[in-house]
Design a protein that fits this description.
This protein is mostly beta strands. About 5% of the residues lie in helices and about 45% in strands. It has one domain: Jelly Rolls (Sandwich). A hairpin with an 8-residue loop joins strand 13 and strand 14. The longest helix has 8 residues.
Length: about 280
């Protein structure tokens, strides 16, 4: 079994402002995450976040050592969260096995050993989305169902942004070292996420857009508030967001997204809001 790892260096705001569309995609967009029978990881130098897609079919896929971390074992100095956006599957952690259904999550603490991923039905494989950040202490591994998630209702139909934020890895749900992970769902007819926009220079963030029809596209806005750019994303593509960048978007149809953050603090509400008149 081969683990494919792509490394993304840090892109600063001045560099981003000069890049064309392809340059922005090379710096921030993660494509082709979910491939049958493969483990695809992106190692970002933004707070050392690892973003992965794992699609087990007939064989179990294992993550134990990833050379890019410079440690003997992947979780030796890291924590991780796994969210399943596909068919039913199982995640093995240090000899224990957890069954993950659609939109269920697993938080895995530092030092838990290898991760093993399997699908219940290879014809309808699990799609495991992995987020991992460095950790300095071990926290208990927790299986998080949709019912356990802390739910925050925001927005309105009038503003086209009525949505429910399901906070999975969050201090009110389960203990973690620095990871925050959640899943945002929209009411019918609502298409805007996180607008008015904000930045949070204390933390980086990554979005995975999913639950979209083949022809649906997301226009994801990024950049410094006064120097914005956009990239167009399709189903199951992710985008990295540095602390200096806004991260907002609108879809041409129904979608959901998983957000994950790592950085100095774990306060979900610690954000610097950007007035609409400041956007350019």
């Amino acid at each position: 079994m081969t683990i494919s790892v792509s490394v993304r260096q840090v892109v600063g705001p001045e560099d981003a402002a000069r890049r064309n569309t392809q340059g922005l995609r090379e710096g921030f967009v993660i494509e082709a995450l979910f491939q049958p029978g493969e483990v695809n990881l992106t190692y970002s130098h933004l707070d050392r976040m690892v973003v992965g897609g794992i699609v087990p079919t007939s064989e179990t896929l294992v993550i134990d050592r990833v050379a890019e971390t410079g440690t003997e074992r992947f979780l030796e100095r890291r924590e991780a969260a796994v969210v399943n956006i596909g068919g039913a599957g199982r995640v093995g952690v240090g000899g224990r096995e957890y069954a993950l259904g659609f939109q269920e999550a697993l938080y895995v603490g530092m030092g838990e050993g290898e991760l093993a991923f399997a699908s219940d039905d290879p014809a309808e494989p699990a799609l495991f989305y992995l987020l991992s950040a460095p950790a300095h202490r071990a926290c208990p591994t927790v299986h998080i169902t949709r019912e356990m998630a802390r739910k925050v209702h925001l927005g309105s139909a009038e503003e086209s942004n009525a949505r429910t934020i399901n906070q999975y890895v969050h201090p009110d749900v389960c203990e973690s070292c620095q990871l925050l992970v959640g899943l945002t769902m929209f009411e019918p007819g609502s298409v805007w996420n996180t607008m008015p926009a904000h930045v949070h220079d204390r933390r980086m963030e990554v979005y995975l857009y999913f639950g979209m029809e083949e022809a649906t596209r997301i226009f994801h806005f990024m950049g410094e508030p006064g120097e914005t750019r956009h990239v167009v994303l399709k189903n199951r593509e992710a985008v990295l967001s540095p602390g200096w960048s806004i991260h907002s978007g609108a879809g041409t149809g129904r979608y959901a997204f998983i957000w994950a953050m790592a950085g100095d603090n774990m306060s979900f509400t610690d954000m610097d809001k950007v007035p609409m008149e400041a956007l350019r």
